[in-house]
Automatic annotation (TrEMBL):
InterPro entries: Calcineurin-like_PHP, CNP_phosphodiesterase-III, Metallo-depent_PP-like
Classification of source organism: Bacteria, Pseudomonadati, Pseudomonadota, Betaproteobacteria, Burkholderiales
Chain ranges of the Calcineurin-like phosphoesterase domain: 4-190
Molecular-function annotations in GO: hydrolase activity; metal ion binding
Similarity-based family: Belongs to the cyclic nucleotide phosphodiesterase class-III family.
Pfam families: Metallophos
The protein's name in its UniProt record: Metallophosphoesterase
Top-level taxon in the UniProt lineage: Bacteria
Keywords, sorted A to Z: Hydrolase, Iron, Metal-binding
CDD domains linked to this entry: MPP_1 (cd07400)
Length: 278
């Protein structure tokens, strides 16, 4: 089994500082195999915000798969936005915009969906999708395949359709060919887990989608600050959601959702069925 801690939308520059130490301590206690951060490390892509984000991320365990979000591109500095859109991200965080972690059980691939030509939307292109194909080529079938983006490939109820990553349908048909199991994203500040079957209707394929809320931002959009822990086995994935308890000043386990794979289709399993070993 492998475990991933899934953090998103940190928004340094608009963080609740009270959450940083308890979150770091809990992540260490959880001892994940990989820490995943799905974008928006900063609020306005300022140097000091990237420095703060980097200093805090360096206190977390590794390896880490980190991708940028739309907030990690300068908003008001037009020159920097269009000519040097991710210069500060690459300087302070990492110059690898498509990070990869692979072992004998999981393959976790980060994909940059942040673009300078739009203020908040994101996009995946054919070159990125083909790079995923090349990276996964030759991996054993039993390796669980994970793609991490900032912008989501599917949406929870109540989300705006514009929040869906552009060219999602193109990418999803390739993901079906490659047997991508899990899509991890942020951006919405909303927690969600489900599958892609209803939106994409690809025969005999449905990936699991896991959306993280904001771990540390003051912009909660009606949700408490939260993050996910994902436990991966070849035919089974469990998603634990942790949320901030302001009474006890700590993150508490809020709920667990369980999914199983049949062929290339991931579906949620009711607690009773899982307990019965079905």
């Amino acid at each position: 089994m492998r475990s991933l801690v899934h953090l998103s939308d940190l928004h340094f520059g608009r963080v609740d500082a009270m959450l940083l130490d308890p979150l770091r301590e809990l992540v260490h206690k959880l001892a994940p195999d990989v820490v995943v951060v799905s974008g928006d490390l900063t609020q306005r892509a300022k140097s000091e915000q990237f420095e703060e984000a980097k200093a805090w991320l360096d206190t977390l365990p590794g390896p880490q798969i980190i991708v940028p979000g739309n907030h990690d591109i300068s908003l008001y500095n037009v020159f920097r936005r269009f000519l040097l859109p991710l210069d500060r991200y690459k300087r302070y965080i990492t110059d690898d915009l498509d990070p990869v972690y692979i072992d004998d059980e999981i393959a976790v691939l980060g994909v940059n969906t942040a673009r300078s030509l739009t203020f908040k939307d994101g996009r995946v292109n054919k070159e990125q999708v083909e790079k995923i194909r090349a990276t996964l080529s030759g991996l054993p079938k039993e390796v669980t395949r994970v793609v991490v983006t900032h912008h989501p490939f599917d949406l929870p109820k109540g989300a705006e359709e514009d929040d869906l990553v552009d060219r999602a349908h193109m990418a999803m048909h390739v993901f079906a060919e490659l047997g991508i199991d899990l899509l991890m994203a942020g951006h919405l500040h909303m927690s969600h887990a489900g599958n892609t079957q209803a939106r994409y209707k690809i025969s005999e394929y449905a990936a699991l989608v896991v959306q993280a809320g904001t771990a540390t931002s003051t912009r909660g959009r009606g949700e408490v600050n939260s993050f996910n822990v994902i436990r991966i086995e070849p035919q089974r994935i469990e998603v634990d959601r942790y949320g901030w308890d302001s009474v006890h000043n700590q993150f508490q386990l809020l709920n667990t959702e369980k999914f199983m794979r049949s062929g290339n289709v991931w579906t949620e399993v009711p607690d009773g069925m899982m307990a019965a070993g079905i």
